[in-house]
Amino acid sequence: MTTEQANVALIRSTLDSFNAGDFETCAARLSPDFVMNLAGLPPMPGPDVWRQGAEIIKRGFPDLHMRIDDVVAAGDEVAVRLTIRGTHLGEYLGLPATGRVIEYVSHEFYRITDGLIAAEWVCSDTATMQGQLTGGQA
Question: How many domains does the chain have?
Fold first, then answer.
């Protein structure tokens, strides 16, 4: 197995674990110096920050599922295009549950170091998600 294939397998299996709600497995695949980069926000270091974010979104959307639509790997980097879908059944960022189904695209980039995820850059279509939550866009 090439480095690129191993890195893709790591990302695929980590996303499978996320979909299953297995945040322990996900966190174990993050390096201790992991940095999360969300579009428009300053870098956020540490696996604990990642876990907090994962728990927040899963509380709001318990059935949240990430489907990989495309994946590309080069060296120590993996890029994925995801379709994210879920039902808003719990409070999310101050918005009470609406029961609405959301579906949006996210482009995510990962750097792998020593078999662990060292960094991620997430650029999600949050405008579409917000519109779907507030009834502005279906």
Answer: 1
Long-range contacts of 89-94 (CB under 8 A, 24+ apart): 89/60, 89/61, 89/62, 89/63, 90/59, 90/60, 90/61, 90/62, 91/59, 91/60, 92/56, 92/57, 92/59, 92/60, 92/61, 92/133, 93/56, 93/60
**Containing structural domain, residue 93:** 3-134
Q: What CATH number did the domain enclosing 124 receive?
A: 3.10.450.50
pTM of whole model > 0.85?
Answer: yes
Q: Kindly give the residue spans of alpha helices, DSSP state H, lying in 20-69.
A: 23-28, 47-60
**pLDDT at 26 (0 to 100):** 97
Q: What per-residue confidence (pLDDT) applies to 136?
A: 73
Cβ atoms of 63 and 86 closer than 8 Å: yes
User: In the prediction, which pLDDT does 73 show?
Assistant: 98
